[in-house]
Every structure is written in C-alpha cells, then in structure tokens.
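Hi W.,

Here's what went into the run:
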Amino acid sequence: MGKFLKKNWFVILVVILFAGISVYYIYDTNKGKLKGKSDNGKDVVYEVNGQDTLADDFYNQLYKSNGTTAVVSLFKQAVADQSVATTSAMKDTAKTQAESIRSSYSTNYGTSADTQLATDLKSTGYTDLEEYLIEAQKISKVTGDYAKANFDDLQIHQVSYILIKFTDSSNVTDTPTDDEAARMKVVDDALAGGSDFATVASSHSEDSSTATNGGDLGVIDKNTSSLDANFLSASLALKEGETSGWVKSNSFGYFKIYCTASTPDTLAANNTSSDPYVTLVQKYDTTLENVAIWQKAQSLGIDFHGNDDLETTIKTSLAINDNSSSNSSTTTASPSASASASASSSASTN
Amino acid sequence: MKKINILLASVLALAPLVGCTDATAKISDAKAALFTIGKTSITKGSVYSLMTSTAGSTTAVNDANKTIAAAEVEVTDEMKTTAQSTLNSYKSLYGDTFTSYLEQQNMTEDEYVNDYLIPSQQAEKLTAKYLDENFDEVCSSYQVVKATILSFTSKDDADAALAELKAGTKTAAEAASGHNSSSTGTSTIYTLESTDVNSMVRTVLNSASPSDAWQLVPEDTANSFALVKVDDNNPSNFKDEAITTLSAISSVSSAATTYFFKKYNFVIYDKTVYDGVKSDHPDNLVQSIAN
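Here's what came out:
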C-alpha cells in the first residue's frame, strides 16, 4: 500500500485536488439555484400544507382559465411567424414603440409602471414587450395583405367629412333651419368655388377632432359597426374623389362626406408614413385581423389532430363562422355612433 | 496511460455537474402536439410554458391561499348564504355578460360559488384570524389606542372647550360643536398608520392613560390646536374594534399573508412561478432560494 502511494503520489494528489474542486463546484453551482421536486416521477410545481401540486395538474388548472388566451396567442404567432419574416426594421420599430410605451406607463403609473406594464402584457399572452410589438407588426402585415387582397369585397374606403352642427340639438327639425342652411351654404359655396375638401373642412367643419386634419375620418369598410348605418352606406357608395350631398345625423347635425380613397394604390399613396390599414384594423373593423389570421392559417394548413373541441374553441375565440369565414361578416351598424367617429347619420342626401 | 485514465475519469466526473440550473417543473406529455399550422406544431409544453409565464404565479398563490383559508376558516351557513346572494346579484346585475364570463372560465354556477365566492370570504377572514393570534404583538407595533381628539383653529376656542371638559359641564361632542370645531367628539381607535394624528398628538396618545385629564396640544399647522383624551390604552378591551381597524391597514394584511404562507410552508419548485411570485406577490414568497 505504502509502495503504491509512494509510486502514485502525484496522481493521488491530483485526484484529491479534483475531489475537493468537485465538492466546491457542486456546492457553488447549486448555491442560489431553485431546487426542484418530483413525486412518483412527476414534477412538482409547488407545495402548501404538505400537499404537492404536480405540473400535470397545474396545467389543467391553468388551462381552465388561461388556456384559450394561450392557444389563440400561439395560434396567431405561428401564423404570423410563418408568414412574415422578422426584419431589422421591425426590431427598430418595436424598440422605439417599447420606449414610448414604457415612458407613457412611467408617466401614468409612476413607481408601479413596470408592474402594471408586466400585468397588461401578460394579459395578451406575452412577457417580453418588444417580442409582442414585433408579433403585432407581423399580424398587422398579414391583416393588411388580406385587406388589400379583398379590398373591393370589403368595400374599403378612406373618407373625410365636414360637420355642420344643429343650432339647437334639443330641437332638431326635419329640414335645416335658416341658420344651419346658411352655414351649409358657406361650405357648398367654398367647394363650388374650387377649394379642396380638406381646406374647407379645416376652416368650416364644426367637428374640432377631425377639422384639424382636413376632416379625415380614416379607413372604414363594410364591417365598420361603430358608425351609423346610413352614414356608412353613404360613405361606401362614394367613389374616389366624389363628395356626397348633406347627410343628416339626428345626433350631431349635417355631414358632407368626401371619399379620399377607394382603391389600394390611392390608399397607400394617402398613407405613406404609416400602415394604411392600421386604423381600419384597430378602430373600425375589429373582426378583420381574426379573419385574416384564420384565412392565412388555412392556406398554411391547419391540423387539430382530431381535437374538435380545440378547433371550436379557437374558432369561437376568433369569431370565425364556418359559413362566413372568409370575409363576409355582416354590417351591424350601431344606432349610437361613437362620438370620436362623429358620424352617426340618417342618410338624406340633397 | 493508467494515470491519464484516472485523470480523465476525474474530469469526466465533473461533466454532469456543468449547467446546474434552477428547477423547471415539466408536464408529462409536453411534446404532444395540440395543433399544427404549416410546419409549426404547438405542443402542450409550449402552451404550458406560456400559461406558466403569464398566469402561473397568480394561479399558484390563489390556489395556496384557498388551501390555507380552507384549513384556517370553517365554511359557515352564513358564508354559503352570502355567496349565493352574491351570485344572484351578479346574475341580475350583469345578465348574459356574467353567463358568458362563466362560460369563458369553463365554470358552472356551483363551481363559482364553491371555488371563488366562498373561498374569498374565507380569505377575508384570514387577516382577522392572524390578528387574533398575534393581537398583543401587532397592537404594540402599531401603538393601538382609543382616544377622543378635538381639533380647533383658535387657541381661545380650544381653551374654552378645555375648561368646559375639565369642569365636566359638557360632553366632548358638545364642547366641540360649541366652539367652532368640526370634530365629532367620538372615541376613535388610533394607530401608527392614522393619517390625522401629528407627532405631538401621537406623543400624548403614547404616554397618556385613561386616568389623565384632557390635554391641550398645539398641532403642526399654525393656529391649530387639539384637545386629546386617551379613553383606553388596553386594546384587549376593544379587541373586535381594534381587529377591524387593523385589518384595513395594508401592511397588516401583508404581514398576515406572509404569516400564513410561512405557517403552511408554501414552497415553489419552478423558477418561472418563483420569479412571478417574487415580482407580483412578494408577500407570498416565504422561501429562500438558497434553501
């Protein structure tokens, strides 16, 4: 034994050193690390009062309240990621948007801004703000492409308007009062005199929210439900460059509507600095994004592996109706138009 | 050669140790595909991972809270009646919106009552239970005292009221209303968290006893004076009221949460859930990661 030790002293020394290093290494690598636990080979997420909650049970528990949001979020991501590649421009845009959002949260929520932002982000199925913003751009692109491809069927229009308010909104008459007619005539004369619609809207529209940008309402389509049906139909009946007669709204007054775009090219030309479909998707046709995603998913190929319930859940969440899944949601005009849209009407062109 | 082998064996023995990481609890069938779009399969594992990051911490904490509340607070008939009444009021108030909400949550009305409404009543009683079990300690920390404080904007009014009170000719309410004070003259529980007590009044509240007479105390604001009388400095004499007052203090309910989560040994074995609890529910995190 002594002979062996004497002969191999260096190797033994190295082995002892390695053993020491190993022990320290094990200690050091596990220091500050969260320990796991398993119960009959199943991973445990947490325990309380000696009761383990297994990951398998936790999945079911989470799925009950959050499953639909999660699968729909992953469904959209899968479609967007396979349809649109991430570009450096998207990353730059997301970074800028993220800075702006963080700044806004900081202003609104102070020291709890990070917590609030994290909570709001989680409700969308994301934990990373920039990742969310990149996905949003991709989904927006898929939706924009869909809108462009179905432009005529969706009857997409960009319109502007001039509003002449009722002189006395508590006493609306069937026909314009003398005072109202006089103000409407000023508008008609200005337009007849060759002034362009935006200029007349800026100087004569009595809707301050749109007058400052030439009366521009934004981009609408046949599914826009926040506008009065008659205002909508009057708008959609216009071709590019056409101006309607006066359209009466019992809520606001008299509208003159001008169509600034009814073709994809003009719409793109009118909105060079931003996505031309963004206001349509975010404000006026909230069904469009889901329809576009579903149609894109169909073109990529969807397999629910026989899980009919999951298919129903996703379709229900996306408001996809098998009978009208392509793009033909019916117009459901609300009689109470939003004030921001400022365009409730009962059509009576003259 | 033999020596080299021993050395290599020693080095290789270290290899499995490389990359020791925080624990992540995984589901058994994580690779099972739920649906496939084009070339991308969404697995149960990816859905689980997303749900854990977005809702794992809150779900774990709520569930643990439910377990603790069930162990600590017995469900009474009164709770069941209240829960049923709450359910009925929601149904009547929100109609179809409430029905849709239950459908979205995959819950029946009975489940809503048993899993949410009753446990939430049990949870509400946890803070009171914590206070009951730690009453003396918490009262001492929060300097709980019952006193009557009358505020005046002129020293003359305060002096006149003080004279009446010392003579015993007027009640506190009468002395206040008779000398331009808006104070009600009601005996009230004050704690360290009471915002309407300045440092000078606080000193009197801490040092005076019920046998002491009314004291005139100048307040922080110029031309502001208080008459202070400690009514009871033994919180055990007004325990129920004290518990109600203390329960409304957020730091007390935080302490109650931590107390019960420690008592029932809430231990997390998943880093994502751990980080979520640490960030969003710090009061519920009662384990040291170096355990």
